[in-house]
Structures
1.
Amino acid sequence: MTTITFTPMPSDQATSYRLGEADAYGLAPERRMTSGTGYPCRHCLSDIGDGKPYLTLAYRPFPALQPYAETGPIFMHAEECPRYAGESVPPILESSPDYILRGYGHDDRIVYGTGAVTLRENVEARAAELLARPDIAYVHVRSARNNCYQCRIDRA
């Protein structure tokens, strides 16, 4: 079975956004305060606590613009946080009953037929199944409700 790892946003990119660098739409990240729960940080892959500062920004988790390079809103801690470095399912993937998993090729394009709503308890097995295929370079995990990018899954 293919061993997988959950990959968050790169730390240098998170630092740049915290310093006010423009997001994927050329805008400065918006700084706000949380009220309650439901703010998953894409750098530490944990939820941002209640009453804590966070950033909202447009994120494009692809190396270059191209037709399949989806862009969307994400949250992240406004203050420095440790980058997630685990191989188990990260905390932000435990708040929903299901997620969309989708495979991408080495050209950063969607591999058709790989996208599927996947139950939370099947995320690791589905990702390993996809990454066992030589035509799939990585997998994206997205919200099954809003299609928001959560994290990337790679071969370990």
2.
Amino acid sequence: MEFHRHPHTYVGLVHLIVADLDRSLTFYKELIGLQVLEQSEHKVVLTADGFTPLLIIERPENVLDKQRQTTGLYHYALLLPNRSDLGSVLRHFIQNGYPLQGASDHLVSEAIYLADPDGNGIEIYIDRPSNTWSWENGEVIMTTDPLDAEGLLAEGEGKMWEGLPKDTVMGHIHLHVAELDEIKEFYTAGLGFDIANSMYGDQVLFVSTGNYHHHIGLNTWNGVGAPQQPENSVGLRSFSIVLPSEEERKRTIEQLRQIGATISQENETILTQDPSGNWIKLCI
């Protein structure tokens, strides 16, 4: 988890809108294995360790159905500490008969993919040691190969399911965006991320800090020029970027202003919005 703490900039809390709060809460507690940190009539804050918020699920009164072919969430990704943890999660999903959407070996990581009851994408993964990652011309090499599911299950065998490990963190977020040129400027010149991988042509871009394989993925798979999702539709409401210091936050705000990005404040929270309409909280 070296890439998800000071002095790096990384993704923290993800905030989702759901259609049925009780249904989603059951899913996230019983299948995913998160715990309730805070709960109110319309909102639940979820955690893995009992004190660090990882995910908010909210049902606003005027919630709209999930919109297709818009910008917004592709998936958020929970990073587990050990391969045996991922094996245990995979076995748990199989035993519960919950359908997976994919399972891949990305060279830098091993991952399984699914969706919550509203279709919000979820990746659960582990990283291979960073000293085994290969880099070419300053970019990390990733691919999508079949996952060694049998080996993963064998590694997790005998490990009792007790929910997600306490060391689970929000590993990254992957977003649908409308285009990549302006988005690239926003996330690099504005937010200060580095390009980690641009080898997928004009469809996908991965950015990070500290030579991580990616803290944020950006794709145009919902179509170039895809419209923004309505404000209260099921999907992503916002996500937070954790910056290493107040000085770094001030520098980031100035960088965003220089490229014409909007900065706003809601109580004590500083927000910005990327060119595809994804809301981001700037935290320390």
3.
Amino acid sequence: MPDTKVAGPRAAVHSIDHFALNVPSIADAARFYRAFGLDVREVRNGDELELRATDGHRWARILPAPAKSLAYLSFNGYERDFDMLARQIEAAGAVPAHAPEGADGGGIWFHDPDGNLLQVKVGPKTSPSAKAPHVTVGAGANARGAVTRSQVETVHPDRLSHVLLFTPDVLRAIDFYARAIGLCLSDKSLDIIAFTHAPHGSDHHLVAFAKSSARGWHHAAWDVRDVDMVGQGAAQMAAAGYTRGWGTGRHVLGSNYFHYVQDPWGSFNEYSADIDFVAPGQPWPAGDFAPEDSLYQWGPDVPSDFIRNTEAPGASAR
């Protein structure tokens, strides 16, 4: 088993800058992400999409391709850490790579052990530096506690929270990401699933890994204000025709309220609220939990297609 503990001081990235996702239909992607409540902008004469949340940051590029897959994942770090990060990435055995066409060519480009293309560069901290308050206020006596359905406003996520990748070797993945870019283990369940955070102030998970026969893209999670908005997001997507997914419920590892909506290619986008937060420089009591006690505290049963990697050989989106 790889050593998942970080020995000695180590530089670390502080945020995800953005992800780039290949999809077989830009038009289908635009419909899905607009229904989800994101700011979808067409660029390159409509051949590419950019996704923004209410914070205005460009969180994703959606690119045309024959099939769905992660094109690359870009991380930001502090300028003071960049040289050490470069040394760590080399020492971890990363395979050097070139920037793909259309991407920012700055920083360091390399492949992880599964072949995922990664970028590390100097950039702004997009992850939160403190835990946002989560307050659901109940109505007092003689007052209505909810608005009518016609008064419910469209849910627009505030920011990207985290991403989850399929990997053939979860333990190898958490070891590599710790040695190369300083991500810390938050919690895991055997060699089935693991969650990692950045040590400069981070949600419980910035990047997570789930076991599969092949690499793949599982989901992106988008932060909303409270559990009510998680449920409203689910209803919003169902009204738009996107009824497949999982939720609403509450996770155990990360503690966040969730609702996952399946995209047209078999992966997911998650409405997430009130995820655990690890303050800068603070230790987190990483645990190893039994599978039956690690995925959700309450909610509907996990659908059979939730853990299907549609990028694995022989798999399909449905």
4.
Amino acid sequence: MADSELASVRYLVDDVEAAVEFYTTHLGFTLEMSAGAAFADVRRGALRLLVSGAASSGARATPPDVAAVAGRNRIHLQYDDLVSEIERLGEAGLTFVSDLVSGPGGQQILLADPSGNLVELFQQAPRD
């Protein structure tokens, strides 16, 4: 897949290696490139997640007053069987930061990466 076909998201992280381990071990991402403690590029389908440590240009470009405020933004990963995925991740020792919530669009639950960045696991509601 060409880089122009990817949706890229940058997460600032405390520990690049821990973030790479979390996303590749538990959420099906693959490591595309690593620059040690500064930066890594992990991908899942059309999602390119740039995990950036304090030494990265992405982190240095972020003003301290903005970096200190956690947003409610998150990446959104879709699953066909969310309950099984929740069980698998729970058995792996991961802790969810929300309960499973159901609505007209489907079901979702939130997980936090080692730096506290949110990941939404989602299953779409059946369509008529």
